[in-house]
Amino acid sequence: MLNDVLEINGRTLKNRLVLQPMEGCDCLPDGSPSELTLRKYGKAAKSGAGTVWFEASAVCPEGCANDRQMVITEQNVDAFARMLDSMRKQSPTDQTYILQLTHSGRQSVRPIVVYRNALYEKDRPVDDDCVAEDGYLELVPEMFEKTARLAVRAGFDGVDVKACHGYLLSESLSAYDRPGKYGGSFENRTRLFLDCIRAVKPALPGDRLLTCRLGVSEMVPYPYGFGADEQGRLDMTEGDRLIGLLQDEGVHILNVTVGNPYFVPHINRPFRRGPYVPPETPETGLKRLEDIETHIKREFPRLVTVASGISYYREKVLDEAEKLLSHGACDLVGIGRMWLAYPDIYNDYLKGAVERRKCCLTCSKCTELMRLDAPSGCAVFDEYYRELYRRLTK
Ligand SMILES: Cc1cc2nc3c(=O)[nH]c(=O)nc-3n(C[C@H](O)[C@H](O)[C@H](O)COP(=O)(O)O)c2cc1C
Ligand code: SF4
Prior knowledge:
By secondary structure, the chain is of the alpha/beta class. Helix content is 36%, strand content 12%. The protein folds into two domains: 6-360, TIM Barrel, CATH 3.20.20.70; 364-394, no CATH class. The chain has an eight-stranded parallel barrel with strand order 3-4-5-6-7-8-9-10, surrounded by four helices. It has a two-stranded antiparallel ribbon with strand order 1-2. Bound molecules: flavin mononucleotide and iron/sulfur cluster.
């Protein structure tokens, strides 16, 4: 199954494996790919995966989470085109390239928030000046549209309007108490996100793909997160309603994720080791992800979906991917940390030669690097990041 093609919007995804977006925080000051960025995506090109979902790239300077975030602009679009050309030459599989578009919102260098959130602000205080006015939010869809046009010019096959992990569009979904057109009712809270989807659509001609990485629930207690009750337990009522609207808007692929990595990181990436001790076993988290993905696929059989969060399975990861596909939990399977650690895993899998000793340990060091405001990569298997991690944590 993993090796099956998938036809969508007149294009063929060469297999069911997706390399998930993994922010490297390693671009040049103008947002274009650095040598490190090119090195990472060069490995992605040779990985054999049918789809590479590029990392979060900001739609405006003030929406950057750090000064090395990927940003595509009029001035640097050719650098992205060269990167994609080079990847296409190196790829044996005629890959599909999707660029994730984001506004980092609360995680921007200077936070821009949709509402004051007491839970998050314990760790990262903000003041009322950080609350975006309606006039600013009204400009955001155009930022997504312009960036989508640049992405198409560079040669990306699709864009992702990112609404997950607590960034601006995701946060707007839980603006229960915000007054005005972006807060309160379901219609108002989904306005910003849906306006961005609608703005991006005309920027995607022909067989280009409109995709969305959606946090279907943040699993952060109501009223501080989307899709959860007062105890932070999953509630898919609004998530389902929103997915239905995305389907109606013509979204081609829904990349499903859950949780908020700044508050409940174990939910979207079950892990073995890390500075934060989760209240549940990784197996519980993996089961929850699969249940949610299965539920979505059952409710929205026509929508092409991507599963997430499975790197914990280590050398069994692609066998588990096959099971998710054959159980009908999804149409495509994504791997995140695993591809940073072991970019050749799929090629080895096809040869029946996956090596346990090369597999991601889900040790969270790549996330730690990011939180240390450093370039992020696999600090176990890649010498550059191993040395960087050692230097920053000694
Ligand atoms: C270092 C790091 C960077 C990430 N960057 C992004 C990103 O840019 N966009 C995004 O949607 N998810 C991002 N994620 C989440 C991953 O795409 C993925 O959902 C998560 O790691 C769980 O999948 P896995 O178990 O295969 O790693 C990141 C995760 C890590 C650890
Ligand atoms: S640092 Fe490497 S081994 Fe550890 S979780 Fe990240 S990708 Fe996996």
